[in-house]
């Protein structure tokens, strides 16, 4: 379930042609998202913050989508993440995040 | 209390010489860290993730320090944030974050 | 007039659903673009430089468009900004900026 | 031949309207890609690594395309570059690179 | 005079050991800082904005120092540049810029 | 031998306190640096390019140091990597890389 986010065009190719990379990425995701104290949902909110702070549209969209689908993260929770992005990464990163959220919630 | 993180050499100058900038940054921090649904602590963990993901040492150190002091965030919680940084921003960003955490917890 | 640049899909959602964020962003823009000594136009040229230096296509396009429309900034002035981007951020950032400028001036 | 990568919409405009910038970029490319000890192909692999590590889709796609066309760089070689990107820039940068490679090799 | 900013430890080595790189960088600086319409000072302000927006301390410090020394750029002008950085790159980049400015003006 | 680069203050803490993260990073390094076609040395040169292109001083210094020590990479080879950094990431990233190289070769 936790690996949902890395399925996609890029990772499909990896699974088929580079199984050893696929395997280590799967293990990496497992270790990363099995925090000692923070739950998976909090870690996913952090993941949204990091990708939105990087201004990486594709990754932000994937993180938001998987957070909403897998973990029932609400648009309000994502907006609260984007507040922090506004402060730490500036208005363009924030606006981009809001536009992606807007598009996802309209679907 | 929430503004602790922006005290420092840079902001001292701003408060004295550019009070209108200081004022808007104070308001911005207030609005950002008053989420509708996420609590302040979760937002601070997100802030640590974003600054560590940016490889910004000074800002990461400030965020970690203020999170531990103000909100009793534990080293284990920060390590769980850094797991996500490892996945999304790579090993150098992760190692840097771990070194800062190490230095802060030794003091 | 100065707020033109933050209208758009992302900010429309913010205005309606998160008026307190909208308000603080409006104030922030007001304070930022009311420099003590530099005029608004110089600050807009700087804004183009920063967004183009970040390789952020959407934000660069918005900044260029609003600078040309609001302040009659010319393509030559923008090209002079992009020269600095070439030196400080490298050729890909420069080429991207030039392509955006090209598309905007053809319309 | 080495300048192939900077032809495109952005550079076409530069050549016509800013010949002095075009000239210096041509010289810059010449000096950069005439290493003392590393051959051109190794430098192109490094270029793919840097642009993919920056998460810059357009530039990554250009670098991969020109490397494959000019220098017969193979998809396996590019995948070995992307391994390093995975380690140093994280999974989103890696996945993006793999998707671009996938699209290029399907054409 | 325009090349002041690239003297330093790194460039000293380049001049001695890699004269062909030194030459092309000198030409690049000449072309970049000879804008068609913008004057050198405006371009230097843009350069400060870009380096401060990148959170690159060493480069920001060099740009500010050379702008103040060569072109009599005032601290107030630099603060007006940093306002734009606050909006477009976030508070950590702004605070870092202000701290550097503070240290430079105290000397 | 390939893991040399991740020893250090940050990773020492990880090995002791977060052995499961240490384990996955070790595997990740193994998979990353065991390319199908490129040799380890070429991949290390790419790693230097990526970290120098990110302007990450600590990571760049580590990569250069381990490349010179483990693999007898020469300063000339590193300079050829930095040429590509100059083109793709701009002069500040290049100068920083050259300064680090200068310091390492003087020791």
Alpha carbon gap, first and last residue of chain A: 22 Å
Order of helical and strand elements of chain A: HHHHHH
**Any idea what the radius of gyration of chain A is?**
14 Å
Give the class of chain A from helix and strand content and strand pairing: mainly alpha
The greatest inter-chain interface is formed by: A-B, 33 and 33 residues
Give the overall silhouette of chain A.
globular
**Assembly state here?**
homohexamer
Largest sheet of chain A: none
Strand elements of chain A, count: 0
Low-confidence stretches of chain A: none
The proportion of strand residues of chain A reads under 5%
As a percent range, the share of helical residues of chain A equals over 70%
Number of H/I helices of chain A: 6
Mean residue pLDDT of chain A: 92
What attributes characterize this protein structure?
mainly alpha; homohexamer
What does this entry show, briefly?
6 copies of one chain form a homohexamer. Chain A has 107 residues and is mostly helical.
